[in-house]
Amino acid sequence: MMSPAELSRMIEDGLSTPEAWNAIRAGDQSFIGRYRLSEEEIATLTGRPTPDTFAQRGVAPLLAMWGSFICNPDFENDWSAGEYFGWEPTETGTTGG
After folding, report:
1. Cα(66)–Cα(14) distance, integer angstroms
2. Is 28 left (phi over 0), alpha (psi -120 to 50) or beta?
3. Which of 10, 13, 24, 51 shows its CA 20 to 30 Å from the CA of 94?
4. What 8-state DSSP symbol labels residue 40?
5. CA–CA gap between residue 69 and residue 50 (Å, rounded)
6. How does DSSP classify residue 58?
7. How many CB atoms lie within 10 A of CB 14?
8. 95 within a domain of the structure (yes/no)
């Protein structure tokens, strides 16, 4: 059974404290077990999800973005605000946006 509301609630909780963020990122089963998630949703958390992955599970776009930051360190490291807003870096290192 899919539970996008529970998955969304968990992401919201992850944004509320550094401890919750770290528990989700670490796959802490005692923390994740507080939410009624399907096996598929739990697998999503550990599968380096992208916003599209969370969206396929019914998570709203903004929470899907944040969920990706929490659960996917590679996504966090590779992402920049300039990419999201379409800014292009200039030769001086500033943005053209």
Report:
1. 9
2. beta
3. 51
4. H
5. 8
6. T
7. 23
8. no
Q: Which residues pair with 95 in a beta bridge?
A: 89
Domain count, the chain: 1
Q: Which residue has the tokens 């966090």?
A: 76
Is 83 within the bounds of a domain? Answer: no
Q: Which candidate, 90, 87, 91, 53, places its Cα nearest to that of 70?
A: 53
pLDDT digit string, tens, across residues 25-80: 999 999 999 999 999 999 999 999 999 999 999 999 999 999 999 999 998 888 76
In a domain, 64, yes or no: yes
This model's pTM is above 0.85? no
Show the domain range for 65. Answer: 4-73
Instruction: Identify the DSSP state of 95.
Output: B
Q: Which of 19, 5, 6, 25 is nearest to 66 (CA)?
A: 25
